[in-house]
Structures are given as structure tokens and as C-alpha cells.
# Entry
Amino acid sequence: MYLCAMQILDGKIVAQSVKEELKQKVDLLKQEGKKTPHLAAVLIGNNGASETYVASKVKTCGEIGYESTLIRFDESVSEEELLKKIGDLNNDSTVDGILVQLPLPKHISEEKVINTIAAEKDVDGFHPSNIGKMVQGQPSYIPATPYGILLLMQHYNIQTKGKHAVVIGRSNIVGRPMSILLSQNNSTGNCTVTLCHSHTHNLKTLCLQADIIVAALGKPEFLTADMVKEGAVVIDVGITRVDDATKKKGYSIKGDVHFESVAPKCSFITPVPGGVGAMTIAALMKNTYLAATNHR
Ligand code: GUN
# Structure
């Protein structure tokens, strides 16, 4: 049997080059006496994963030379107080980009929060106005994870035209926008897309027909070798914390792909960690730069 050479899609390296490019652009803005991009991140409660992601976003702002503000609320914050804060950030001309880390506590409406963020500062690309523009192929903020995946595939010159892409998971954050972007009539699209979810019949049969699989369902090691065609491109969006007594932290991070068995069948595959996660932050930083330069 022919086994193709498998290549790792190294999100760390590609994210680093995106960040270096942004740093140069920010240095230039500073030299020209222009104000630096400023991201405001809102974190509610003490969810361990959310804390880690937000800390990483704030740290990356510092590395690039952006300003950042972290606004923390207790888990018990009222919806009203949170919406008021978002309104203040919308009106604050020193702030270019706003993100509210998800998930939110149950008593707060995600829909209301997202709709309250000014579309021109919505660097997560979750506002209906940005989603609507994205669907129509108009310039918009593209949600960071799908955007990061496209940047990663573009870097490795992975062809999408005419390919069958299977996206597993239909979340507003990843799966659904990913399915739309891959179907668009442009250089990172032109795929035939199948969007699979918890009610999909014959998932394995569909996956076996896929040239590109994006696993974004949040089930550790869900995608196994028997579901993947020889030579496929596999993008793993999963980052689930799984109890692991052998680790100092008490958990290890698992992707949605059973890497060990799937990798040998792939032409390209993303590792976890070091794949999509790093790219998500790089893409957010690109959106923030765009917000800062559009804004002025
Ligand atoms: N939670 C998981 N992913 C994301 C993201 O990309 N943005 C925000 N704001 N919250 C998230």
C-alpha cells in the first residue's frame, strides 16, 4: 500500500511569523506617531480554560506592541452591568477591539452580549453584522479560529478548489463559519462542503469521502483512522482538558483527532497543542490591527 509523506501543519511557527509581521507594522505606526492598536478583553468568572486563553491573548498583545486592557467580572455579575461595560468600551475611542470570552455564565444571554458589541470593534467576528457580511463575501472580521485555519492552510499552499471538505461541528464560533468560508468563491474556498453535526447519519462514510476534514466538535480523539481517507488533510480544532494524574496540572489537552492513528494516513495534519490554537490568537491579532487601522 502507498503511504504518502505526512506533513505537520505547524501553527506555532506560522503564528510566530504572523505576529512578527504585525509587530513590524505596529512599529511603523509608532514611528509615524500614530496610536497603537488596543484590545479590550472581558473575562467573566474563573473558568480555567478561559483564563488561559485570555491570558495568552493579553500576553500576545504585549509581544506585538499592542495595548491591552483586561476587564474581569465575578461569575455573579449581572447581565445589565456587563452590557453597560460593553457600551462604555464601544464609546471609548482609545479601544479598537473588544472581545468577551465565551462561554458566559448561564444567567447572561450570549446573544445580547454579542449584539451589544459595536460591529466595528467586534474583532471576534461574532456580531450578526459581521457574520452577514462574511456570508456575502463582503469585507468583515472573520472569526479567529476559522480565519487562523485558512491562514495556516494558505501558508502550506494547501489547495482547496474542487475539494470535498467535511466540517464536523456546527458551532457559531468554528464549524458554521468554517463551512461558509470553505465554500466561498475565492482562493481559500471553492470546496464542496459537508457540514456534519450530532444528527448526521453515516458520518464515517462522509468522512471517508473527504479530502479535507475539520474536526470541531469538542470530543477528545473522536476522529479515528478508519474514518480518514489516505492523503486527507486533517485539521484538529479540539482542545479538551482530560483528567490525567501523570501530569503536574492534573490534566492533559486532547484534540478531536486520534493523532497517533490518523497522522500516518494524512498528507497534512495539525497537532494539538501547536496547531490551530496558536493560529486563533494570531488571527485575532490580525483582526485587531484591522480594527485599529479601519477605525482611524
Ligand atoms: N471561546 C472559545 N473560543 C473563543 C473565541 O474565539 N472568542 C471568544 N471570545 N471566546 C471563545
About this structure: The two ends are 58 Å apart (CA to CA). The chain has a mean pLDDT of 96.
